[in-house]
Each structure stands twice: as structure tokens, then as C-alpha cells.
Amino acid sequence: MKIKEIEAFDAFMKHGTTKAAAETLGISQSMVSRLLMGLEEELGFALFKRARNQLSPTSEAFLYHASVLRLMASIRDTQKTRMLLLITKWGVSSLLLNPFFAIPFYSM
């Protein structure tokens, strides 16, 4: 299971179409479709009913999306923790400067 597949699924579930999901993620609509199919293949069950070039989420998709939302929240928490650790290690002043001019400050 790839993070890109999960992001595509989350974007589709939030926005309702592959076109809107693609715009949100900055990728093509066909890439979103491929990512969704890859996720379904990996999971071993259908997330969507397909009819006339339209995807409709299955009940499994809604249940799975609840888990994906928790996962995405956990990833955001991990990113926040990383930033807090960086700030603690390097100091706020070095993070606010352009990286080219930043000089890390160490506390001794």
C-alpha cells in the first residue's frame, strides 16, 4: 500500500470526483484512477462501484475512509512532532531564516 494511493483515496472521498481529487493533489485524473485501482487491488476488495465513467463509493469505502482519516491525522501529528523536535534542536531563529543564510545555533 502506497501513501500516494491513500492520498488519492482520501482526496476522492473528500471531493467526490477523480477530477477534483486530481486538482487537489496536482496530478492527472487518469493517475488518480490508477492509484485508486492499485489501492483496491492491494486491499483485495472494491472501494467503488463503476458505472459509465463514474465512481460511487461502496459501504466498505466509507468504513475504510474512517480509518484513513485517522491515519492522515496521525501523519500530521508526526509532522508536528518533527517540527517541534527541529525547533528544540536548532532553535527558532535558524528555522525562520532563509536556509542559505541560516546558521544553526547549538545550546551548550
TrEMBL record:
What are the protein's UniProt keywords? Membrane, Transmembrane, Transmembrane helix
Q: Which Pfam families match?
A: HTH_1 (PF00126)
Domain (HTH lysR-type): residue spans on this chain: 1-58
Matching InterPro entries:
LysR_HTH_N, WH-like_DNA-bd_sf, WH_DNA-bd_sf
Regions crossing the membrane: 84-106
| The keyword Protease belongs to this UniProt entry's keyword annotation | no
Q: Does the keyword Amino-acid biosynthesis apply?
A: no
The UniProt entry's coiled-coil ranges are none
Q: From the Swiss-Prot or TrEMBL record, give the protein name.
A: HTH lysR-type domain-containing protein
